[in-house]
Amino acid sequence: MSNSRQHRSWRELSFVLPLVKWLWSFALTLFGLAIVTFAMTRLSPIDPALQLVGDHASQSTYEQARLELGLDQPLPLQFLRYVETALSGNLGQSISTGQPVAHDIARTFPATIELATTAIVLGATIGLALGIIAAMRQGTWIDGVCRLVSLFGYSVPIFWLGLLLLLLFYARLHWAPGPGRADVVFQYTVKPVTGFALIDTWRSGKPGAFRDALAHLALPATVLAIHALAAISRLTRASIITELGQEYVTTARAKGARLGRIVFVHILPNISGTLLTVIALSYASLLEGAVLTETVFAWPGIGRYLTTAMFAGDMPAILGATLVVGASFVLLNALTDLAVARLEVERKR
């Protein structure tokens, strides 16, 4: 009985310790992110007070704006105020849209999540399949084709691929709709409830609207998926080839096990933590790196919002979007570490 309790306590401790480590690492990373974004506000040549009141404001108005923004206080107090307002959800007022930055991000971020999620599902599915096939057919022409596809995904510029797909499938063949998230006829007939076009159009009960949203999503998601599958397929292939040389695989082969069974039953569970990490990191990179894709396809996500803010010199919008995207990346990375640690604990049981 005592051995059973001791075993259970060790199992709980093996899960609690990574959780505490995860929380500490997550808090420190977010703190570092807050320092970086705060430093951006102070190192930027754009004066937030002058940007708020305009170039033709009087000196007294300018000084009053500095007082309201807390720019007259010491830097440590300014940083504490910045963290306090960010934690409360107040990311400032956008100069270009005239709306709160938090409102703009809540409106645009779902579009980026929808695009990145669709892309990572496609990229992970195709990338895992290519990696498994290439490893099982190592040294053959099939392996060469799979590696060529992954090399193409690594080397081709995203903006060039997006423009090429638009030219081919939209301008020449007319198989795909134009840039944007939906045709004009559906933009004002489908009420945006969740912010996710596929969900909202499906809930609307209008099959034409759902097909239109899916058609607009296809090309930009394909561009990002090609970029994501490159890293996934290469790491999957390399991990499987490494495991094929292990002793347990040699033993399984000596017992007459087929290669497919060895890969799917023995190898993939052993490298699941590695695959989960690369897929999660690829997903996080799509969330933060979809700027060019959203710009090419006029996709109204946070990447395009950030690009517009940078051209307009809208510092509150730039910092707010940077903070949200960075926090999302940190959260995904931390959750992945926690999930991988949990998988390792379960695998060793």
UniProtKB/TrEMBL annotation:
Keyword tags: Cell membrane, Membrane, Transmembrane, Transmembrane helix, Transport
Native source organism of the sequence: Rhizobium altiplani
InterPro entries for the chain: BPD_transp_1_N (IPR045621), MetI-like (IPR000515), MetI-like_sf (IPR035906)
Main location group: membrane
PROSITE patterns (UniProt xref): ABC_TM1
Cellular compartments annotated: Cell membrane
Domain ABC transmembrane type-1, residue spans: 109-336
Membrane topology, as annotated: Multi-pass membrane protein
Pfam families reported for this sequence: BPD_transp_1, BPD_transp_1_N
TM segment ranges: 21-40, 115-136, 148-171, 213-232, 263-284, 317-340
Protein's recorded name: Peptide ABC transporter permease
Gene Ontology CC terms, in alphabetical order: plasma membrane
Top-rank lineage group of the source organism: Bacteria
Family note: Belongs to the binding-protein-dependent transport system permease family.
MF annotations from Gene Ontology: dipeptide transmembrane transporter activity
